[in-house]
Amino acid sequence: MPESKSVEYTPPPPPTPTAPTPIHITKFSPAEQTINSGAQAKICYSTSGEGSAQISPEVGSVAPSIFGEQHCKTVKPKQTTVYMLTVRSREGQTESREVRVNVKQPGIQIN
Q: What is the C-alpha separation between 82 and 98, in angstroms, rounded?
């Protein structure tokens, strides 16, 4: 008959709650692009962590990427514009990046 042994089991400690990862910008692109007057441009961004995100001017609040997925917004500037993506963590820390959309104004042709 096999010998039986008694083993004492100690359960692992409960998981410690982790602080949320502050939000940061992983991508804001393209860095620069040129469009014709009246055309639209697409600017794309991705973030990581928890917090809020905003693109200015004109776009406003945007959804942060929870898992780093890319989001894109269409803009239609009337003149060359620098768009700024700003993220803010729950603790109030901010990070910003810029992209530039150059707008070619229609030229005047003289014959």
A: 6
Report the C-alpha gap between 49 and 13 in whole angstroms: 26
β-sheet bridge partners, residue 55: 60, 85
Number of domains in the chain: 1
What CATH number should be reported for the domain holding residue 56? 2.60.40.10
* Domain encompassing residue 78: 24-104
d(CA 87, CA 54): 6
pLDDT at 18: 67
Q: SS3 for 74?
A: strand
- Total-model pTM: 0.77
CA distances from 51 to 34, 90, 105 (A): 31, 6, 38
